[in-house]
Design a protein that fits this description.
The chain is an alpha+beta fold. The chain folds into 2 domains: 107 residues, Homing Intron 3 (I-Ppo) Encoded Endonuclease, Chain A; 83 residues, no CATH class. The protein is 23% helix and 25% strand. The strands form 4 sheets. The protein has a 3-stranded mixed β-sheet. A 3-stranded antiparallel β-sheet has the order 2-3-4. β10 and β11 form a beta hairpin.
Length: 223
């Protein structure tokens, strides 16, 4: 008989849920799942960097669970809906300690974007662009942020220095995305502000001094 495969989710029977609980144990401090019967830890990773999926078979039906969803279930006793996700707070995909896991929507999780591989500035939300006035080409760093999925990026401002462009991006990111903000710096150089507030703040700024790479450039923007 051909084996049927199903996702372990809210629709699974109580019998299947109980079997997962009896077969596996979870250590919330290390994020490790142990197969109690086989005394086996699941340490392999997928191509995307997550821990391997875990399976059990009940009456010729193979039930599959992603590692982090099973961690949540074993710790809380509840399964999250299929339209929700488990977010790894520190972006380390195989860090499944309970303090690093939280339930979120697909939209919230999509806000936590990592640096694009084609980004040459080294900062999220910052692009190197140029203008040509017919006589001279001017290079500058443009800071922009996508607030709503599908709406495209909204420009924050243009800067001579990529560092300033990055901290203005971080400010907007924290303002709009709050706990799901994915910033360039852990330090909050600028308080969270809306795009309009940041544009007004930038207009009021004095001309930026020459950068000294040996100094902490962020100190120039602290109040």
């Amino acid at each position: 008989m051909k084996r049927v495969r199903k996702t372990f989710n809210e629709a699974s029977s109580e019998r299947v849920k109980d079997l997962f609980k009896r077969m596996f144990s979870y250590d919330p401090d290390t994020g490790e799942i142990n197969n109690i019967r086989k005394n086996r830890l699941y340490t392999r990773k997928t191509i995307k960097g997550y821990r391997e999926c875990i399976y059990i078979t009940v009456d010729t039906i193979e039930y599959r669970s992603t590692y982090h969803r099973l961690c949540w279930f074993l710790h809380t006793g509840t399964l999250i809906p299929d339209n929700m996700q488990i977010d790894h707070i520190n972006n380390i995909k195989d860090d499944n300690r309970i303090v690093n896991l939280r339930v979120c929507t697909n939209e919230d999780n999509s806000k936590k974007r990592l640096l694009r591989v084609d980004n040459k500035t080294g900062y999220r939300g910052v692009q190197l662009t140029s203008d040509n006035n017919g006589r001279k080409i001017y290079h500058y760093y443009s800071s922009s942020i996508t607030i709503k999925k599908g709406a495209g990026p909204t420009k924050i401002g243009r800067f001579k220095d990529s560092f300033y462009a990055a901290i203005f991006y971080d400010s907007a990111n924290r303002y709009y995305f709050k706990d799901f903000a994915s910033c360039n710096f852990e330090k909050e150089y600028l308080k969270p502000m809306s795009i309009l507030e940041l544009r007004n703040y930038k207009r009021a700024m004095k001309p930026l001094p020459e950068m000294d790479e040996n100094k902490n450039r962020g100190e120039l923007l602290e109040s």
